[in-house]
Amino acid sequence: MGPLLSYFAQNLVNHVPRDKPLYFLAREGYWLEKAYQSYLNGADIQRESHYLLVSRAFLFKILASDKRSYAYSLKSSFSGAFYDLIRTRFLLSDSQIKQIFDEETAQELVYLPDDKKKIIEVLNQHSTRIEEVITPSKQAYLSYLETLGVLHQDSLHLVDVGYSGTIQSLLGILLDKDTHGHYLIASKPGKHIIENQQAEMHGYLKENVKLGDGYLPLDRSMFLESLLTAPYGQFRGIRLNTFDPTKFDFYYGRKVASQRYFHELEQVMKGALQYCEHAAKYGIHFDVEELEMLFTSYLSKANMVPRSVRHIFDIDDDVTGNGTVNALQFFGLA
Description:
This is HAD family hydrolase. By secondary structure, this protein is α/β, with parallel strands linked by helices. Helix content is 46%, strand content 19%.
């Protein structure tokens, strides 16, 4: 983790304009931002950065009435009742779904990708009611982004592990801003026009690889994601605080093992952050081949990870319907 995070931080320092704040996304961004600041400390550099709470599912929710988002929210396969699609994919509660859709519509069986057009028609027909339901969350989230200075940027520099830039694309749609995505691995690098906004994506470890192409750090990215996690579950909602409207109440999904035993994960990451600072201070650099060799040894050889910490490699994969998965067990490394 130390070499990988210091390499990423070094590239961010080298490739992002000094006057542009960096916004670190989702649960992975929690440790990526801390690693970046540790590297800056070691190099005696000052740059602005923020950890930004966001998730695909939450953006699907607050963009549920925006047809520009359907290319992303309806991309993954699904089979089941329309009610379950709206509840799991768009994070709407039971009462919210009943406010918007009648019982017959809610219970109709749908399949993705086959029924994509039909689902879009239903969403479009109910867009006014959807908008009414999601507006409080959407307005609260925009107020939260305002506190981080996001709304004042002419273009956003976003950081995540990777890979296809879905959150970057959705934020560009939500805010009508050009975005620059900085990733370890970028499946779709380069400049793209997404709903009249430019989205530029750059991968510092690898570009132009997709899941299943045989590039181990991507094919087994669950391993990395299980360690790079914030202390709480998936970001699911936000409201203005009832007693103090200048503050926010945040809502999260269930915790997986690495979050329940976060004190153990913190000990692992403490060493990684110290390494980032050390690498910056003494000018220690890694090239891509060295990192791939180090990383691949953990991703392809059984029993490299001590038995006492194997339980922290659980991640949740609720968006795709897979529940909780242990990365080590999944790939036969435990």
